[in-house]
């Protein structure tokens, strides 16, 4: 089998206050997969995500991206390969204009002039926000800001796109538009979410993290229909939603 | 307070003043202010000249004078201080409208008031005719240290986010029956400011994480 895009082996991490957030997590994601990372609040999902690009450093175990270990000397390249879209777009969009913001990452990679321009506009076109390039981000709607946040990461041409709660705070139309965009992208996706219908819609595979352990890894449909597993890990389908009536 | 007033210093229009290069406008403001401050306060007609010059520029800029006038409320604390000055200053007294006031205090108040007001009008005119982004570019052109320009850029970017947060906290307070009329309740306002500071600090940390995630190494690209 090919080298996985994302390979997490025996990852453990304790916060400085002693709280053990991850207990030996194993996770492999292969090229072109779209994987949902599910789990209740406090399961360690965000902690895991912050390990993927070296913001947090593994206490034990290892993380590697397309064979490159997440270690200090490779950080710049790792951060190009792993694009994280954070939950609050106001944290992600910090420049004065959409164009400057989308250009921030590639410019850090050394792109300049016309090449930078092309990269920025291509990323904005992928999320349907090209005509907003010269607007300040805080004048956009929440859904538009979320899309621009995705573009800021796409502009770095990542090998894996990591989304933290992509559907949170979106109205149903924006939520669907984002789903259409994510489906149209030719990129590996790891999506952290509480929105189980969204996970079923977009990700064929789901991984359940609970209390710092991976407790399930399989087809999203199988995970969501395993009632005992769902109950044991505080996962609940929204009222009236039954995966069996859809697939 | 409140989101509605956020970035409302810039007035969109097309005028020679709007088109002028930002760094030239900043320099003009700087020299104008040095001139105003250096003018002895007894040269009364000269201040009239300054005012005429500013009013002429405002007319040229097509910014409605009431737009500038409304935003001059920032000066109120200085005005109060200036009004108190003639009553508390020492020295020979003189009569003004039947009140005994200090001569040097009166002159001091005049100086403070006229120089402050001219400064506020001139700055508001610059802000009304220059987009915040252009202002930053202008400062960069004038060789202001990049780190300071970055900090100011972040301030502009997050001003609305933070004022909006403040507005939501006020609504949440008032929805639970709070009103700040009684001075004994002012401590709640102080705690709100503390909470806002912590929230903003944490947001700063999250923004920093997001920057690191996109390859930030301490220097702004571009």
What does the model show?
The complex is a heterodimer of chains A (247) and B (222). Chain A is α/β, with parallel strands linked by helices and 247 residues long. Helices cover 36% and strands 24% of the residues of chain A. Chain A has a single domain (6-245), classed as 3-Layer(aba) Sandwich (Rossmann fold), CATH 3.40.50. Helix content of chain B is 69%, strand content 4%. Chain B has 2 domains: 3-131, no CATH class; 145-213, no CATH class. The relative contact order of chain B is 0.12. Chain B is mainly α and 222 residues long. In chain B, β1 and β2 form a beta hairpin. The A-B interface holds A 50, 53, 55, 76, 79-80, 82-84, 86, 88, 90-92, 94-97, 100, 103-105, 107-109, 136-138, 152-153, 156 and B 132-133, 136, 153-154, 156-158, 160-161, 203, 206-207, 209-217, 221-222.
Taking the sheet with the most strands of chain A, its summary is: 6 strands, mixed
Total of domains of chain A: 1
Helical percentage of chain B: 55-70%
Q: Average pLDDT across residues of chain A?
A: 93
CATH top level class name of chain A: Alpha Beta
CATH architecture call of chain A:
3-Layer(aba) Sandwich
> What name does the CATH topology of chain A carry?
Rossmann fold
Biggest interface between protein chains, with counts per chain? Answer: A-B, 31 and 24 residues
Q: Determine the structural class of chain B based on helices, strands and strand pairing.
A: mainly alpha
Give me the strand/helix succession of chain B.
HHHHHEEHHHH
Strand line-up across the major sheet of chain B: 1-2
* Outline of chain A: globular
Distance between the termini of chain B: 34 Å
- Gross morphology of chain B is globular
State the strand order across the main sheet of chain A: 6-7-8-3-9-10
Residue-averaged pLDDT of chain B: 86
- Given the helix and strand composition of chain A, which structural class is it? alpha/beta
